[in-house]
Design a protein that fits this description.
The protein has 594 residues and is an alpha+beta fold. It contains 15 helices and 34 strands. Helices cover 31% and strands 34% of the residues. It binds guanosine-5'-diphosphate. The site of guanosine-5'-diphosphate (GDP) has 16 residues, from α6.
């Protein structure tokens, strides 16, 4: 870094006037060491350097004269002490970096938030205002991601906003996102899906930036949103926390540059690096079949440089990159780390989240396929070892909790947290009222959590997804049973004594009066199956009305043992006749586990 004599002179002048704590530093120091010495958040320090015209990463080495004016804004006067060993250490660390053969890569950003809070508008605004130089005016293509140039730095945005897509990728082991933007409309505040998005983001441990959107709206109330954030354990910098929060209008662009600047700051702090190697690795974002071109897959490159003609491995399939297109639909000859690119030349349609590897050397392909298979074996062994370690130390269980009404949420949460002890820990990934949804299952799958429903109905699709993704889903209506089971799980008894399994869910479509005050409910099974010996829970507007045994279960005119997904049936329930069209029936079975 060049010495700036003007800054140096100015600092000398001011040193004589300004009071502050004196800090002795060597002629060169890393940004993180300086932040440590001054006891300030490195993010704050990086921002201050940006204001002074220096884009620095956390491990960058700063010269004394550059550091001085910035330190002064934090109330410190720097004093030069030439400690050779430190200088040597700094040098050592910089040579170490190069020997690791790592190169910086742009951040990959995902936008989450409640519906209608402006995620798409923000993505469009950023894209339209920051198209890569020389490509303005091109017709944009939606290939699942795009890259912009901001202040000479690239940023990649995944343009399928929403936590479901995010967690389903994570559940498949595809960790693509470096920074999450949670968009909250200033006129609406934190809504249920915002809370879900926060839970998904926190579970992923990816740094979060909050964008309070629609600040142009007459009903905008940014302070309210900030208060709500603090109530949900997201303390923003302004309030003494470490979450960056930026007010924006995605509609007219106000504050969006500030948001992009902060993305770069967080990226610097995260020190995003990738191996600069010839082995290319990437993750499939989405894929489609084009009538003329064939299979096209959008891939985000994680490592290496993908080039036309490279041999590409997808699972155990060998392919060749025939052509590549960027997010503007323009043909490109290479793709660098963090960049999205649409690839032509795959022989099979991949799934979102699939990994690809590539090499220019055809002879390496078989080796890559073998390595891929070995990686799968290794990761299996690793998880075995991991669970072994866990059982010998602290046993922990991650939970996603859903309750029927808000009023039961806190008592359930508090009772569960009371089970925490020195050698066992409950981590509540997400707790909310409402039905158990597919989003909850994805969150649980991505966070290795089990779902606890307390009088909470299942939403369509949740059961199937839970079965497919091996997520344990348990439902209770007695708190004692719930605590008993979770205690057993914590103690390492994998299977609890009482297990209430939800077997299926149906919607009532018609009701028939068959005399003597008895009603038949005509239903359609949305998910799973309704079995003759199941206990049915009947819900209306998410509230449980009744729980009881089935008297008769029919399909058409026949008595049947069960009715499965996609079929209609009729049932009568012991002690209940007041069905309404639209009521939800859940079939439960209590399994006693030895
Ligand atoms: P999404 O569902 O989160 O993707 O939300 P959209 O981007 O589709 O936006 C929902 C609505 O909010 C649209 O009518 C947008 O025009 C509007 N909107 C988005 N951003 C702003 C903003 O900054 N200010 C105002 N006033 N309206 C906005």
């Amino acid at each position: 870094m060049e010495k700036d004599s003007e800054i140096s002179n100015a600092s000398e002048e001011q040193d004589s006037q300004i009071e502050g704590d004196i800090l002795e530093i060597p002629s060169e120091i890393t940004l993180s060491d300086l932040a440590n010495l001054m006891d300030v958040n490195p993010v704050e320090l990086i921002k201050e350097f940006m204001r002074n015209g220096f884009m620095l990463a956390i491990n960058d080495v700063i010269e004394f004269d550059v550091a001085s004016p910035v330190a002064r804004t934090f109330g410190y006067i720097l004093d030069l002490v030439d400690r050779e060993p430190s200088k040597q250490a700094a040098l050592d660390s910089s040579t170490q970096d190069t020997s690791e053969d790592l190169e910086s890569r742009p951040p990959i950003v995902t936008i989450l938030g409640h519906v209608d809070h402006g995620k798409t508008t923000l993505l469009d605004n950023i894209r339209n205002s920051n198209v890569v130089d020389g490509e303005a005016g091109s017709i944009t293509q939606h290939i699942g991601a795009y890259q912009v140039d901001f202040n000479s730095n690239k940023i990649t945005f995944l343009d399928t906003p929403g936590h479901q897509a995010f967690s389903s990728m994570r559940a498949r082991g595809a960790y693509l996102t470096d920074i999450i933007i949670i968009v909250i409309a200033a006129d609406d505040g934190i809504m249920p899906q915002t809370l879900e998005a926060i839970a998904h983001a926190k579970a992923s441990k990816v740094p979060i930036i909050v964008a309070i959107n629609k600040i142009d709206h007459p009903a905008a109330d940014q302070e309210k949103v900030k208060r709500q954030l603090s109530e949900n354990d997201l303390l923003i910098e302004e309030w003494g926390g470490d979450v960056i929060c930026v007010g924006i209008s995605a509609l007219n662009g106000d504050g969006v540059d500030d948001l992009l600047e902060n993305i770069l700051v967080v990226a610097e702090v995260s020190d995003l690096k990738t191996k600069s190697s010839n082995d290319v690795k990437g993750i499939v974002l989405e894929a489609r079949t084009d009538k003329r071109k064939g299979i096209l897959a959008t891939v985000i490159i994680q490592q290496g440089r993908l080039e036309i003609g490279d041999h590409l491995v997808l699972g155990s399939h060998k392919n060749k990159v025939r052509a590549m297109f960027n997010d503007l639909g323009n043909p490109v000859t290479e793709a660098l780390p963090s960049s999205p690119v649409e690839i032509l030349g795959l022989s099979i349609l991949p799934n979102a989240g699939d990994s690809i590897s590539a090499t220019s050397d055809e002879r390496m392909m078989s080796q890559i396929i073998k390595d891929n298979e070995k990686d799968i074996d290794d990761s299996y062994q690793l998880s075995e070892i991991h669970s072994g370690i866990e059982s010998s130390n602290i046993r922990s269980v991650n939970l996603v909790i859903k309750t029927d009404v808000q009023g039961t949420l806190e008592p359930v949460r508090t009772s569960l947290e009371s089970l925490n002890s020195e050698d066992s820990r409950i981590t509540i990934i997400h707790a909310a009222s409402g039905g158990v949804s597919e989003s909850d299952v994805l969150l649980a799958a991505a966070s290795d959590a089990m779902i606890i429903g307390f009088n909470s109905p299942l939403e369509p699709g949740a059961l199937t997804l839970a079965t497919q993704s091996n997520v344990k889903l348990r439902s209770y209506n007695i708190i004692y049973h719930l605590l008993d089971d979770v205690t057993k799980v914590l103690k390492g008894l994998e299977d609890p004594v009482y297990e209430d399994v939800i077997e299926g869910q149906a919607t009532i479509r018609a009701t028939f009066d068959i005399g003597k005050g008895v009603s038949v409910a005509g239903f359609y099974v949305n998910d799973g199956k309704i079995t003759k010996d199941s206990v049915v829970h009947i819900y209306r507007d998410q509230k449980k009305l009744f729980e009881g045994d089935i008297n008769t279960l029919k399909h058409l005119k026949d008595d049947v043992r069960d009715v499965k997904t996609g079929f209609e049936g009729g049932l009568t329930v012991d002690g209940f006749n007041d069905y309404l069209e639209g009521d939800i029936i859940e079939a439960h079975k209590t399994v006693v586990v030895e």
